[in-house]
Amino acid sequence: MKDIALEFIKIIEEEGYKAYIVGGFVRDYLMGIESKDIDITTSATPKELKNIFQDVKFEKLNDKDNYGSVRVDYKNIIFEVTTFREELCYLDNRHPSSIRYVTDLTTDLKRRDFTINAICMDKDGKIIDPLNGEEDLKKKLIKTINKSDKSFSDDALRILRAIRFSATLGFNLSNDIKESIKKHKELLKNISYERKKIELDKIFTSIKAKDGIELIKELDLANVLDLENLDRIKDYTDLIGIWSMIDSSCYKFTKHEKELIKKVNIVYNLNNLDDLVLYKYGLYVNTLAGINKGLTKREITERYDKLAIKAKSDIAIDAKDICKVLRKEPDSFLNEIYNDLETEILKGELLNKKEDILNYIERKYQKVI
Ligand code: ATP
Ligand code: MG
To answer: How many CA atoms lie within 13 Å of 235's alpha carbon, on the beta-carbon side?
Structure first.
């Protein structure tokens, strides 16, 4: 990936512009972590980049959350390319009112959030670090480039980014940052739930999700972020499990996620796990609910594995057998019988054996249906 990235910036440089890898890729590279995308900062403008590369997606300047950055697909890697810029006066604690292209790398680096995100790599793979980000990287410290009060009030999303980097990298926030976050926390209300959720998802799926959540509590952000019930979380290994415990109506989820969250809460609120619940809601939902209730994954899995049946298809007879014993054509009565069989078998009242089941059906349904 690094070789392709260096090749990419060489192409821009050959056209007479300056270009550097910056941000997450360099930070992660220095820490030996693999990155998914690559951010490039360059003196070339979006228009000029369009003349250099074929597959360029031009994002509109001042589109929400996007200030003229360009996405270039080069050798199957997505490059997020921005032009050296400074950001002028901020609006709504998130977006600059306008940007101005500049010719100097350091000016561009100074508008970024944290020192560890302002380290660059040039076309020869040499590290360029005028703001001493590498020093903070070694100290495992997240430090704002500008005064933290200004940095967070300019763009309150940086509050969540700080917690995200602390959780994903296992870094500490400087005391100064912590104080500033507490001071400016209300500004998080001005950030869209959609944007906040992107950062929260990254925190919740990080290896240090528990630390990230503890940090949210320590900095007293739960309320302002509408994250109720953080104390219900006992399992930090599953994103849906975490959101289920939070159970907030402010954040958006897909239909499938909503259904899962609802099911986890139903099971969580039941007094005990019985075989019918294990069967009806399945292993995944029961594991999420169970661990958050204090059960172990092993306990839940062992109980699930011991279920007499795990699906309708495990029942030792099929629809044909039922129709034959009742001398009936298939019809809606089959559903009723299947539901009954599931319950009886799971309750342990009926053995899952063909003979026993056929006898049971004959006895119970011969006259009724
Ligand atoms: P990731 O690993 O998630 O890609 P990243 O640090 O690369 O982390 P990006 O969102 O890709 O984060 O942004 C790229 C770079 O742009 C950052 O490293 C940082 O220098 C700068 N940046 C991004 N968002 C902000 C922001 N809200 N305020 C200031 N600088 C930002
Ligand atoms: Mg990035």
So the answer is: 25
Please state, as a whole number, how many other Cβ atoms lie within 10 Å of the Cβ of residue 269. Answer: 9
Centre of ligand 2 from the C-alpha of residue 90, in Å: 22
Q: Are residues 95 and 200 in the same domain?
A: no
The enclosing domain of 7 has a CATH number of 3.30.460.10
Task: Give the position, in ligand 1's atom list, of the atom nearest the Cα of 80.
Answer: 11
* Residue 242 and residue 321 in one domain: no
What's the number of domains the chain is made of? 4
pLDDT of residue 94: 74
pLDDT score for 69: 84
Considering the domain architecture, whether residues 168 and 182 belong to the same structural domain is answered as: yes
CATH number, residue 350: 1.10.246.80
Write out pLDDT tens, residues 67-126.
Answer: 568 999 999 999 999 999 988 777 777 777 778 888 899 999 999 999 999 999 999 999
Q: Which residues, judged by CB distance below 6 Å to any ligand atom, belong to the binding site of ligand 1?
A: 23-24, 37, 39, 112-113, 117-118, 155, 157-158, 161
Q: Quote the ligand 2 centre to 324 CA distance (angstroms).
A: 64
Partners of residue 58 on adjacent β-strands: 70
Ligand 1 pocket test target in 29, 39, 65, 108 with most atoms within 8 Å of CB: 39
Dist. CA 37 → ligand 2 center (Å):
6
Q: Is 98 exposed, middle or buried (0-12, 13-18, 19+ CB in 10 A)?
A: middle
Q: How far is the CA of 38 from the centre of ligand 2 (A)?
A: 6
Do residues 20 and 117 share a domain?
Answer: yes
The series of mean pLDDT values per 10 residues for the chain, 369 residues long, is 95 96 97 92 92 82 57 92 86 77 93 97 97 97 95 95 95 93 96 96 95 96 94 95 95 97 96 90 96 94 95 92 88 91 95 94 79
Give the DSSP per-residue string, 43-56.
SS-HHHHHHH-SSE
Pair 319, 294 in one domain: no
Domain that residue 239 falls in:
233-307
- Residue where a domain terminates, one of 208, 227, 246: 227
C-alpha torsion sign, points 190, 169, 132, 117: negative
pLDDT of residue 365: 85
216 plus 265 within the same structural domain:
no
Atom from ligand 1 closest to the CA of residue 118: 20
Residue listed under structure tokens 């007499």:
308
- Provide the residue type at 60 as one letter: K
Q: How far is the CA of 202 from the centre of ligand 2 (A)?
A: 13
Same domain, 21 and 79: yes
